[in-house]
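Sample A.
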Amino acid sequence: MMNFSANMLGLDNAATPFGIKAMESLQELNPDKAKASNAQIMFLCLHAAGLALIPTSVIAVRAATVGINGAKAANPTDIFLPCLVATFVATLAALLIVSFKQKIKIFQPVIIAWIVGISAIIALLVWFVSSLSTVGLNIFSEQLSTGIILLIFFLIVIGGLYKRSMCLMHLLKVQKEGLKQLLKLFLIWLAC
């Protein structure tokens, strides 16, 4: 879950250690150590497809990189919707191809309902965005990407409260460690 979560948030390099750990865990369960198991193949294909709800790496590069004309991207987040559609199609293709190859019964009502529902949401989103002006598209893209980030964090907290897990404590601990590291970097920067 950590690997897929990092990929969905567009944290490409952060997903790699989680992916390696997941593959090591799957290898422990693998009866034939010389060959990849079906679970390992499915994980690798879904990871390679890389469903990205928020393509933060691409947005950061577009914000920092000077283009051919010598200017930065006017709106780095306008890549959001094309990335969402492309990674959704790639993930769906990977899921279907591996499911057919491994003879997984994917045509079950619940799975079909999820695929059709998510596809309909993305199709409606594309239809809506195609009707917007350039200015409206920029505003909508920024608001949507920000809204999805906030929604994901709220869902994590609400899910933790619902399951009565220590989710909030872990979240606060990670945040505290991150702030400590940020403070150390700031002090090093000041010393230079």
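Sample B.
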Amino acid sequence: MFCSVSEKRYEGIYEMLKDLPTMNDTAIQFSLEFFPPKTEAGKEKLQATEKTLFDALQPAYASVTFGAGGSTQKGTRETVLDIHKQGVDAAPHLSCVGATRDSIAEILGGYQQAGIRRIVALRGDMPSGMGDSGDFRYANELVEFIRQQTGDHFHIEVAAYPEFHPQAPDAFTDLKNFKRKVEAGANSAITQYFYNIDAYLRFNEECAMMGLDLPIVPGIMPITNYTNLSRFSEMCGAEIPRWIRERLIAFRDDTDSLKSFGLEVTTRLCQDLLSAGAPGLHFYTMNQSLPTLQIFNHLDLKAEE
């Protein structure tokens, strides 16, 4: 049993956060992220994962990642359309690095015709060996282009970095870049995962001071494997606090204890976030159902009917 959350810690910031608009004023909403499977076995596993999580969480939507330079474009589309057929809103990731305006317009048109109403608009990473960055340099240019091409058809999600983008020269520049995405037409944001709630609260506070009033949904990464988590965190600039890192290292050869500790850490993080007024939770599932399902069940919350 986990300790109850004290709201005293968030006095002041909580008052600011609770007045921000949420994606739904009546209920906390959950969303999920998947990646396109590369094999038939992977497809079967993902379909089972989707069924389990869709039934349990009744998510507002499910996003599907997009490989560097569009390397998984076909797989992304297939996965998105499969989710859409199941009656769940699907949100394809759309990466603009290495893309042309014509290629992005074609992708947008295809999603419009298929009835897709959400997009996660990202700059994306430059694939190794690719020298041409394409027609877009930054995500705000992609967001602006989507609005020009499709008006208000798509609900546009953008990325937010409470611990700041690893390529940003400084924190203030990163905040200004985020503001550009919002002003270009973003509806809401999903954060990079983090384990330091103060980073999220401070990011929201600074956004509010800049006049940004969109929902900023925290991204949640379940902890099930130290080696993978350390590698992912190194790549994306997410900090693993020392007290968590040292415990995970100590549990490295004890899988059950590591997973139990990871579940406690992420559940308490989610409890704190929701108590502080976060508008929802976005789970990075890694195409697995159990870690996300365990967190959801430990939160003892009911998905929106």
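B remarks: Residues 35 and 65 are 5 Å apart (CA to CA). Residues 8-299 form a domain with the TIM Barrel fold (CATH 3.20.20.220).
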